Amino acid sequence: EAGVAQSPRYKIIEKRQSVAFWCNPISGHATLYWYQQILGQGPKLLIQFQNNGVVDDSQLPKDRFSAERLKGVDSTLKIQPAKLEDSAVYLCASSLGALAVGKTQYFGPGTRLLVL
Amino acid sequence: ELKVEQNPLFLSMQEGKNYTIYCNYSTTSDRLYWYRQDPGKSLESLFVLLSNGAVKQEGRLMASLDTKARLSTLHITAAVHDLSATYFCAVEPSGGGADGLTFGKGTHLIIQP
């Protein structure tokens, strides 16, 4: 079974530039999450989708971050404009969904973003 | 607001020794997870604990959950170098469809020969 795919794996940009990350979840997983992991810390939830609807985006900095999952499968996370403090690893995770008994979240390899 | 605290945050131990990592959380939870992260890698699921008194074991690792005390432990038995990694506990909030995890800061474990 293929895991969660993310691209790009690495990105270096200058502050005030824009950047976008892509995620393809495990086939059949209805729920998709984006997390931000700053160096030395645990991941922090940014947004959760159930199919193509947003379940929780309370911790997403909406003035600069946006995310979508138009067809209920792939998702993109965008930052515009980027700040120095956005330097982090952006992790995508997926799970079977809220009604599943074993709804472990499976994480992708992450996109490492460096903002200069 | 759900808060998750792990301790210790850093642990250096010798091979063959036993040790325990602790995870406390602040509010009721549906599930508690333990993940492993190797340097530069993503998170690997180790255990999911669903109910009070749950105990799961895999190799030299054993995890337990006490929902009344809001405490989970990850016990390492006879540590080997391959277990060197950062270990995170993560808590899923109770009820509803919003089940994004709240993670602890992680325990950076180094096992020396």
List the SSEs and their pairings.
The complex is a heterodimer of chains A (116) and B (113).
Chain A: E1 5-7, E2 10-13, E3 19-24, E4 31-37, E5 44-50, E6 53-56, E7 65-68, E8 75-79, E9 88-95, E10 106-107, E11 111-115
Chain B: E1 4-7, E2 10-14, E3 19-25, E4 29-37, E5 43-49, E6 55-58, E7 61-66, E8 71-76, E9 85-93, E10 102-103, E11 107-112
Parallel strand pairs in B: 2-11
Antiparallel strand pairs in B: 1-3, 3-8, 4-5, 4-9, 6-7, 7-8, 9-10, 9-11
Description of the molecule:
The complex is a heterodimer of chains A (116) and B (113). Chain A has 116 residues and is an all-beta fold. Chain A has strands at residues 5-7, 10-13, 19-24, 31-37, 44-50, 53-56, 65-68, 75-79, 88-95, 106-107, 111-115. Chain A contains no helices and eleven strands. In chain A, strand 7 (65-68) and strand 8 (75-79) form a beta hairpin. The model of chain A has no long low-confidence stretch (mean pLDDT 93). Chain B is mostly beta strands. Chain B is 0% helix and 58% strand. Chain B contains no helices and eleven strands. Chain B has strands at residues 4-7, 10-14, 19-25, 29-37, 43-49, 55-58, 61-66, 71-76, 85-93, 102-103, 107-112. In chain B, strands 2, 4, 5, 9, 10 and 11 form a six-stranded mixed beta sheet that branches. In chain B, a hairpin with a 4-residue loop joins strand 7 (61-66) and strand 8 (71-76). Chain B is globular and about 45 Å long. The mean pLDDT of chain B is 92. Classes of the chains: A mainly beta (116), B mainly beta (113). The interface between A and B is medium-sized, with 25 and 22 residues.
